[in-house]
Amino acid sequence: MSDTTEAIEQVTSLSDYINKVGKLHLTQERKLKQLNSEKQMNIYYRGQNQNFPNTLPSLIRNENYLKNEDKLINDFITKYPELFGNCQNNFDRLALMQHHQLPTRLLDLTSNPLVALYFAVERSNGSTNKDTDLIDGKIFPFTNFYDPVPLRQSLTDDHFENIFSEFTSVKGNNRQFLKSPFSDEIEIESSLARLNGDDRNLVLNEVNDFYKTLNSVDAKHQTYWSNLYADIVNSSENPRDPNNLLETYEFFNKMSSTKRLYHEIKKDIGDFEAKINPLELFVPKIVTPRIIDQRIKNQRGLFMFVPFVDNNGFREDGSSVLLDSNEIQKRTQTRINILRLLSSPENSSAENQQPVTFVIPYEKKESIRTELESMGITESFIYPDPSHIAHEILKYY
After folding, report:
1. Residues 6+ apart with CB under 8 A from 338
2. Alpha-carbon distance 251 to 230, whole Å?
3. Are the beta carbons of 48 and 122 closer than 8 angstroms?
4. Residue 74's closest CA among 217, 197, 246, 254?
5. How far apart are CA 265 and CA 262, in angstroms?
6. In the chain, where do the E strands start and end?
7. For residue 141, which of 54, 52, 44 has the smallest C-alpha distance?
8. DSSP secondary structure of 47-97
């Protein structure tokens, strides 16, 4: 689904993997010093035991699921309301649904590289007809600092190239991509996922129109919106807006579909100031969930909140074009890649850096599983519930 060329690192044993991960962390520490940033560059991992052509959540790989995203969420809540008794917001509900195998736009990650390795070599259960021990496993490292190449490509897809300057102002600062489950941005996007499909599409259409307008403004003024939005948040009496972008933003805020989104948010968390920064909706975010059970604690689980891609794109002449399912998946994958971890060969330029992928040859999976078990990374550790504990016990008899 993605044309991205990857830096492949083959893993043949547990010690080989630990050594490669260690080098990865040393490289990132060196990068951070070059950025002169006080922020911490974290590495997150996603293990996949099947050779999917992408790292898309199952919701987005399935066109019908994606069209009915709000119905999947709301039907689950309606049919099992007691499950969500301890949830504090819509993100908590999404995380719990993901935990119980409902397709959502959350992508499972972990901060523990050994847990990701377990998932990459895990043998599928009886519910699948694929023997994953005959398929190479993969591990995809992510980080909380963006890669400018897929970011620029994502903006170029809809001819929004001039907006790139709005994002480069946060280089060396991870706040835009690392979020708390209680942040306003995550509440906005979690509530947008629950919003009626027609209203959600109208909101996304208008956000895209905002990007189009901003793109023409940013051709002359770098970080125009960043400055204006700061004035909006601070209730400035004289906002920096010579091109009247505020008029476009206020129109978006007054739309009935946007008001219904604000209503959904206020119904969920109560106090909320009706302000959305449209640029926040464009990029993926790493979210640390509340530790709601032992499983999340053991797995050191986190989520990537995968951004929404509007069904309508723009041609170079500014006219609208309806995107098919394949194009939506391709564009979504490009946005996910914004947070892929890049290789850093000696003396290489930024343009030559490639996303890192660890590949575990299928013939090495069984031996690596045995090595992981000796380190305590077992089925019952990853899935600490009675059925998985019973399954693990039966393997010894």
Report:
1. 146, 147, 150, 151, 154, 283, 284
2. 18
3. no
4. 197
5. 5
6. 7-10, 43-48, 106-110, 137-143, 178-179, 285-287, 301-305, 312-314, 320-322, 356-360
7. 44
8. EESS--SS---HHHHSHHHHHTHHHHHHHHHHH-GGGGTT--SHHHHHHHH
Query: How far are the Cα atoms of 119, 165, 365 from residue 370, in angstroms, in the given order?
Result: 13, 49, 9
The string of pLDDT tens digits covering residues 150-194 is 999 999 999 999 999 888 755 445 567 899 999 999 999 999 999
Q: Are strands 301-305 and 285-287 parallel, antiparallel or unpaired?
A: antiparallel
pTM: 0.91
DSSP string, 321-366: EE--HHHHHHHHHHHHGGGBPBP--TT--GGG--BEEEEE-GGGHH
A 10 A CB-CB count for 342 gives 21
pLDDT of residue 175: 61
Structure tokens at 8: 């492949």
Tokens 């500014």 locate to 318
At 254, the amino acid letter reads K
- Check if the beta carbon of residue 325 is closer than 8 Å to that of residue 63: yes
DSSP 169: T
Question: Whose structure tokens read 């519910």?
Answer: 127
Residue 179: Cβ within 10 Å count:
23
E strand segments, 144-234: 178-179
Spatial neighbors of 307 by CB under 8 A, at least 6 apart, are 189, 281, 282, 283, 284, 332, 335
Burial class (CB in 10 A: 0-12, 13-18, 19+), 386: exposed
**If we measure between CA atoms, which residue out of 231, 228, 232 comes closest to residue 245?**
228
**Closest CA relative to residue 91, chosen from 336, 278, 302, 262:** 302
Q: pLDDT for 128-149, tens place per residue?
A: 446 788 999 999 999 988 888 9
* Closest-CA residue to 257 (of 186, 190, 192): 192
Maximum Cα–Cα distance across the chain:
76
d(CA 392, CA 373): 11
Closest CA to 346 of 35, 31, 32: 31
